[in-house]
Amino acid sequence: MSTKRKKKKRKNKIVLFVVEIIILAALLVGLYVYSRMNQVDSTGEIEQEEVNVELDSETAEVLKGYTNIALFGLDNREVGKYTSGNSDTIMIASINNDTKKVKLVSVYRDTFLNVKDDTYRKINAAYALGGPKGAIAALNKNLNLDIVDYVSVDFGAVVDAVDLLDGIELELTNQEVQIMNDNYIDEINKVTNHSSSKLSGGGTHTVDGVQALAYCRIRYTAGDDFKRTERQRTVLTKMIEKAKGSSLTTIGGMIDSMMDEISTSLTSKDLLKLAGDVMGYELAGTHGWPFELCTGNYGSQSSLVVPTDLETNVEELHEYLFDEKNNVSNTVTGLSDYIRNYTGCTPESTTRFDNPLTDDDNTSTVDTGYVLPEDGDDGLSD
Fold first, then answer.
1. Is the model's pTM score more than 0.90?
2. pLDDT band for position 276 (cuts 50, 70, 90)
């Protein structure tokens, strides 16, 4: 055998060995993630008939190309309680299955919608009344969606996840720092059994988990609850960016730490697929919803966010998430009529415009008597 052929054979063996190592590493990664996924407390798959999925054939065909997941952040002041409580954070993550682009939409917690049967209240009451399935059913019914999966987290999950990422970088104002220090950091330390320090002055800070959660909870500044949901999306965006650049060890540590702090309908198989795709995901946009609204006290209800009107806002939401102008269901039309008649809020009386489709951005609201409810309000006492 010639020297040239020997070198070529040796080179082929080296290449084959490297390929084998890569395959082995991939298998080990898969086994590691799968072993951790099996520890997740999954509540099991949810059937469409359990959660008010009502789509016409055309809309159903469009939504087949997307995976829509409800994300709930619970303000229970109690770690590990997921079956009820206040869903102070309500988001919809919509994943384009082909492009892997993800859009996040925050549903304002005080939005006046149908929460159960003939009951109309703030949308955060849906979780308090019916747990995660009740909250998903309310989102599907009011927004004409097909959500059958959810992830619920509490204070501890957010704190631990940020800490395991070695913090995230935020740009903070002096006012935000003061509110975080005075109103939230001590309480979150107590609830989560942490000992995070307070911050000094505005500027760029690398914040830990407690500080990040305190930032998420700020409400009493310019922009009120609308600005708070923007802060929540900022923190989630920063976490996604940091996680995508993290090592397997870091991700594994996050999974281990958060096993007891998450409730989800996703199975181990679902989570494994999401974990396998995560590096290919691109966060394509985040926004708050409704896009056009009124605020104030209406009838016996207080401190409401009212879509003007619901039917229009749902049509626009579908166009934003799915790039399609889908027809809304007859149910949405009926709900829209009720909300308009009850509150008197019409498109002509809109006080806040923030539409990502048209670049309408008049995010200041006139004084309509809207007063932010206290933290932890579940909308049941109105």
1. no
2. low
